[in-house]
Amino acid sequence: MSSDVYSAIGAALPSFEEEDQVALSRQVLQAARNDPPRGAPIAFSQKHGEPEHIEPGRWREHHAQWHRLPLGCPVTPLGKQATLSGTTYFFLDTLGEVAVLAENAGKGHVTSLFGGRPLFLTWAWPRFGKGGVVTGYAAEDARDDLFAACTYCGTFDLEDRVRGRGAWRDDDGRLIYHAGDAVWIGGQWRPPGQHGRFIYPGRPKIGRPSRTLEREGSGSPGDLLLQGLESWNWERRELDPRLALGWLMLAMVGGALDQRPVIYVVGTEGAGKSTLQKLFRLLMNGALLATSNTTQAGIYQKVKQDSVAVMVDEMEAKEDTRTTDKILELARVAYSGDKMQRGGKDGVGQEFSVNSSFMMSSIAMPPVDAQDASRMAVLMLRERVARDTTLEDLGLREATKVQALGRQLLKRMIWWFEGEGGKDWQALISAFKGALVDVGHNDRSADTFGALAAACHAALRDEMPAADEIEFWQGQLKAEQLVETSGREKTWRRAFMHLIEAQPDNIRNVTHKSVGSALLAWKNNWGGEIGDRKANLDDVMFTLRHFGMTISFGKDQFNAPNPEDWDHARLFIPAKHPGLNDLFAGTPWAGKKGAPGPWLGVLRQMPKHLWENGKCDRGLDEKKSGIFIQLSAALAWDDTMPLPMAA
User: Fold this and answer.
1) Is 38 left (phi over 0), alpha (psi -120 to 50) or beta?
2) Domain ranges of the chain
3) Taking the CB of the first residue and of the last residue of the chain, which one, N or C, has fewer CB atoms within 10 A?
4) Per-residue pLDDT tens for 124-164?
5) Is the pLDDT of residue 8 over 70?
6) Contact of 427 with 450, CB cutoff 8 Å
7) What is the rounded distance in angstroms from the CA atom of residue 223 to the CA atom of residue 307?
8) Residue 491 has pLDDT above 90, yes or no
9) pTM of the predicted model, to two decimals?
10) Which helix (H) or strand (E) holds 415?
């Protein structure tokens, strides 16, 4: 047997227990058996008396639904949507899948809509030949009735009404799980279709939760998986495998979460990233899109309305970061379950709701903006120092056992969501978030790491966390010690320091290569001879002119003992200037030539006592609008400093 059996089962479909599943194809087949032979009537049961036999085409008088299709019609109208090129009509077909027909749809489209039920078509919309014999069905009559039914249903928005595979919440916050061929609602499995105001279409099936709940303790599903995850050579030996376990639990019910934290796994060759990914693929039982070298559009076009997890490999750092930036943007949108707008055909825009949990991996991590970093945990894998047999010993190399383990963990997560036995997922996650705020986390990082910790707890424990467990997580997740949060800078600070430290080409051949080097020379010499101080300030002013910036002082400063000194200098930054466009090029704060740049809006986010609006013309060709920044105070500021009391 191969040492890594994953290679033989990588593309294998998961196996499931069949006896409690809703087999859609069987349903269609059974319903088709009840359809009458061509030309024969259908018997409709009556509350009192004998069944009523309705001849072909004669159902309209007494046997139509409110939208004027026959009772028992296997196709459900959903509504219509107008576009620049015509009207589109939406249906649920015989398999419960969403089908779309254009207004010029032909007979083949209607036949496809009623796939597996051709005799229903010849009964509902018969075409009569000589002697009143039914010879087929009248496609135009069927199409007209179908389109009219969609009109009676009203306008239809695919994104707002359709929920694909994965976990969801109903209006009361209860969990719904769509397994593709069946939907878990209110404690029972139901066939796909319209449930409440949402459409749960039939899709290829994914794994269901286990029937029974495995309790906590040694050898429990969570315990076994944690032991397996601990066999990797993680940088943070105790923390990282628990965060990985927490992400897996969250990924199983991503669409039902308020936040979907991202994990990024970084590791060199031989660290076991591929083995970890294959393990997660099996645990997810098909509820996972695994891809590499992909694009943002490729991901959301594949996921569509599903809330299944997404795993992206080979997110390597490259010179051209546009592709990775777009994927990171998609993960950021998915974190909160927001919508993305994209242009569509026929001039009609499209919305994509993203409700997937993202896992990414690479050898070298690409640049990540602060807004993305605050939504992710970075897990580092080091090369294994020796062969480890833990996975074999635990049975985690056996596909069927791993798949069963995943179903048991999904059952635990649903159990916590459904509040069985006094369980309360919202109370659990609130407990961890509050504990992390107490050890230095802001709201965003508490949301991220609190959710991961809570989900890890849900995998391992049956009860709410005790005080010692909370203390353990607080010790592991102190904000000042985490690599994800210890170097966290506010956006205004990063923009300001970029302005100070950048070395654009238009000043690299003069005395100073950056604004910061000119300012440092002045700072270091302002207390010297008056002539030296003036020369250094003139040097600063010359450098700043390249960007429309200048140094200014308050009017009262000229009567001070040390006029124009460093401690009272104000850096004036204009609202627009070509030089600032060049300085901020390639950053999120770059502007367009001739228009005010976004840098001012970002810099105004610094504490209010560090800046003020105004106009300035000192050393400039003309008076400009912008902001004055208290230079020495802004450079020395950090977020631990108390804000000054308001006057």
Assistant:
1) beta
2) 24-161, 166-200, 221-486, 491-636
3) C
4) 999 999 989 999 999 999 999 999 999 999 999 888 889 99
5) no
6) no
7) 26
8) no
9) 0.79
10) helix 399-418
Residues 128-132: contacts with CB within 8 Å, 24+ apart? none
Determine the residue type at 19.
Answer: E
**pLDDT band, very low/low/confident/very high, at 391 (cuts 50, 70, 90):** very high
- Segment 242-246 mean pLDDT: 98
SS3 99: strand
Q: How many CA atoms lie within 13 A of 296 on its CB side?
A: 19
**Distance between CA 533 and CA 610 in Å, rounded?**
24
Greatest mean pLDDT among 212-216, 240-244, 416-420, 595-599: 240-244
pLDDT bin (cut points 50, 70, 90) of residue 592 is confident
The domain made up of 221-486 has a fold known as Rossmann fold (3.40.50)
Q: What's CA 473's distance to the chain center, in Å?
A: 25
- For the chain, state the CA radius of gyration: 32
Length of the chain: 647
Task: Choose between 388 and 422: higher pLDDT.
Answer: 388
CA distance 226 to 283: 13
Grouping H, G, I as helix, E, B as strand and the rest as coil, residue 291 is strand
Cβ distance 407 to 206 under 8 Å?
A: no
Of the candidates 412, 599, 351, 379, which has an alpha carbon nearest to the alpha carbon of residue 495? 599
Ranges assigned E (strand) in 117-173:
126-128, 134-137, 166-169
Q: Are 218 and 205 in contact (CB under 8 A)?
A: no
At residue 511, φ and ψ (nearest 5 deg) are: -60, -40
Measured in whole angstroms, how far is the alpha carbon of residue 205 from the centre of its chain?
Answer: 22
Reported as a pLDDT band with limits 50, 70 and 90, residue 526 is low
DSSP codes, 462-531: SSPPPHHHHHHHHHHT-TTT-HHHHT---HHHHHHHHHHH---GGGTTSS-SSHHHHHHHHHHHTTS-HH
Q: Show Cβ contacts of residue 207 under 8 Å, excluding neighbours closer than 6 positions.
A: 14, 16, 179, 284, 285, 286, 287, 403, 406, 407, 410
Identify the CA nearest to 68 among candidates 131, 147, 140: 147
Q: What is the mean pLDDT of residues 576-591?
A: 87
User: pLDDT value at position 560?
Assistant: 53
Q: Are 266 and 361 in contact (CB under 8 A)?
A: yes
Taking the CA atoms of residue 518, residue 524, residue 528 and residue 533 in that order, the dihedral angle to the nearest 10 degrees is 20
Q: Which tokens in the block code for residue 55?
A: 């001849």
Alpha carbons within 13 angstroms on the beta-carbon side of residue 89 total 24
The 10 Å Cβ neighbour count of residue 208 is: 22
d(CA 234, CA 232): 6
Q: Given pLDDT bands bounded at 50, 70 and 90, which one contains residue 5?
A: very low
Residue 520: Cβ within 10 Å count: 16
> pLDDT value at position 63?
85
Burial class, 462, CB count within 10 angstroms (exposed 0-12 / middle 13-18 / buried 19+): middle
Token pair belonging to 416: 């916590």
Contact 179, 169 (CB under 8 A): no
The bridge status of strand 262-267 relative to strand 376-381 is parallel
Q: Is the predicted pLDDT of residue 16 greater than 70, yes or no? A: no
Segments of 125-281 assigned E as strands:
126-128, 134-137, 166-169, 175-178, 183-185, 188-190, 193-195, 198-200, 262-267
Higher pLDDT, 93 or 12: 93
- The answer on pLDDT for 523 being more than 90 is no
Higher pLDDT, 504 or 264: 264
Which residue type is seen at 375?
Answer: R
pLDDT, residue 183, reads 94
φ/ψ region of 146 (left if φ > 0, alpha if ψ in -120 to 50, else beta) reads alpha
